[in-house]
Amino acid sequence: MWKSATRSLATAALVSAPKLQDVVIIGGGPAGLSLLAALKNSHKTKHLKCTLVEGSNLDPIRDFGMDPPENYTNRVVSLTPKSVEFMQEKIGSWDFINLDRIKFYDGIRAYDGQDNSSRISFDGTTTGSGVLAAMSENINIQSSLISKIEQLNDEIIDEEEDQPAIILDNTKVIDIEDPLNAQHTHSHSDLNEIDPSAGDEALDWPIIKLDNGEALQARLLVGADGYNSPVRKFARIESRGWQYDRWGVVGTIKMQFEDYRALGWQRFLSTGPLAILPLTDDNATFVWSSTPELAELLLKVDEVIFPHLLTAAMTLEEVDLQYIYKTLQNNPNDRSVLEDISWRLSKKDISDLEENYPLPVTELVPGSRARFPLKLSHADTYMAPRIALVGDAAHTIHPLAGQGLNMGQSDVGHLVQALEKGVDRGMDIGSTLVLENYVADAWPSNHMILGACDKLHKIFAVQWTPFVYLRGFGIKTLNSLGYVKDLMVQTISGK
Ligand SMILES: Cc1cc2nc3c(=O)[nH]c(=O)nc-3n(C[C@H](O)[C@H](O)[C@H](O)COP(=O)(O)OP(=O)(O)OC[C@H]3O[C@@H](n4cnc5c(N)ncnc54)[C@H](O)[C@@H]3O)c2cc1C
Ligand SMILES: *[C@@H]1O[C@H](CO)[C@@H](O)[C@H](O)[C@H]1NC(C)=O
Ligand SMILES: *[C@@H]1O[C@H](CO)[C@@H](O)[C@H](O)[C@H]1NC(C)=O
Ligand SMILES: *[C@@H]1O[C@H](CO)[C@@H](O)[C@H](O)[C@H]1NC(C)=O
């Protein structure tokens, strides 16, 4: 009796004793995995003890590397050449990407829904490489990052010197405590027992409580934990922004045939921008920003009708579209719409269609439609003592310029750079002196991109005629003003 009682007490004490780590990353999305891989791939930071905690199961992502699904998944992003270069040079994860499922494309043709003569082209030639950006599934990126982390772990010979990266998936963070404020914290002597080398230092390290009963204590806690970021809330960092009252409806589609043009297409409709972006062969993906009512309809419309509706939305006049929506609102399976659409399309000038519009959409991959609420948010800062935020935890953006994931890559680049500098100078990497460099490098450019996309959204969501006229005029002027356009291309391509 007596013996077993002490043993269970001892076990309980062991379980609740926080494990000290240099860096704890919450979130196994693209941002969190990129940070872990980049830290472990840098000879300046690879000695740091790093643990990543992810609430969901990462097995499907691990499996993707060996056995990818037949069709494209519907979470797809546009990667800038800068992000690709970062994954090639700094993270070294690009070697593990499934290149058969990456589509490099050369340009975007954007045009106005209410004035089809106002057009603007963004081309990769301005960036020097000839490539504007690359389309990739989120899961392809995440899977390549996990493979890179596993490779780096496998290469470790001396586990004392080079710490393997630890990924705890299926593990949720349920609470974060500040040991200086919390009531039931471990006494000073407790901490010294766990790791005497940590000394007094660990006294102010945040304690991360996991749903498996264990706890971690971090010299630096990084929130890569997405829009609702528990880390940001713990750090009491204010995040400002608004919901757009718009949804992004996405899905995987087939075009009539493979388009040699390798272009993305974007039409600014009054309900929001609609983009069709190329994937390999005749595969493509769409992002359709819509009002709540339209988004609901788009998810309901019969799978046979949907591809034709998408073609119509890229091509027909907005009044015609409104009429088609109304018919479908009465009955989302009303196939008489198909005849109506083909009749309206038949009245268009074929050579204009071939030259200035995407190919017709022929198929929707069954079950591939999904919707996401669109919002803009930006944290006031990306740091607090022993805390840093990266990716969607720090900012969310309208998908119209496809910048969300790329901004996260740029955050990770700046954070790793700041940490390397800190290590070089023998500083505590959780200290505000080190983290201030990160915020100074990352925040202002993100703020600029967020502002520009927000303004674009607002300009194009307006239906008031004089404004539409001005906006068309604006697009044309912009298109002829090479200098201004180059700046925009530089933003899209990240160069
Ligand atoms: C419709 C749409 C289209 C988009 N198109 C593009 C595009 O073309 N180009 C582009 O660059 N970006 C695009 N984005 C944005 C892009 O998808 C996101 O920016 C990106 O996924 C953010 O990555 P992240 O790692 O920061 O966050 P997330 O992917 O949100 O990852 C956060 C992770 O944290 C985990 N987590 C959260 N809380 C906890 C907890 N308590 N415990 C444990 N784990 C936790 C979550 O499980 C999640 O895995 C688009 C977004 C949308 C909605
Ligand atoms: C894309 O389409 C082609 C031909 O239709 C197909 O062979 C290819 O495997 C597809 N790729 C993916 C990932 O679906
Ligand atoms: C472009 O707009 C004009 C005027 O509204 C219209 O007559 C023409 O058919 C449109 N072209 C296409 C391809 O929609
Ligand atoms: C893949 O896409 C094709 C073409 O849309 C479809 O016929 C097939 O059922 C899809 N396969 C799966 C597993 O979803």
From TrEMBL:
Q: What is this protein called?
A: Ubiquinone biosynthesis monooxygenase COQ6, mitochondrial
Source organism per UniProt:
Hyphopichia burtonii NRRL Y-1933
Per the UniProt record, one Pfam family is FAD_binding_3
In which pathway does this enzyme or protein participate? Cofactor biosynthesis; ubiquinone biosynthesis
Q: Which PROSITE patterns match?
A: UBIH
Alphabetically sorted, this entry's keywords are: FAD, Flavoprotein, Membrane, Mitochondrion, Mitochondrion inner membrane, Monooxygenase, Oxidoreductase, Ubiquinone, Ubiquinone biosynthesis
Query: Coiled-coil region(s) at which residues?
Result: none
Q: Main location per UniProt?
A: mitochondrion
Where found? Mitochondrion inner membrane
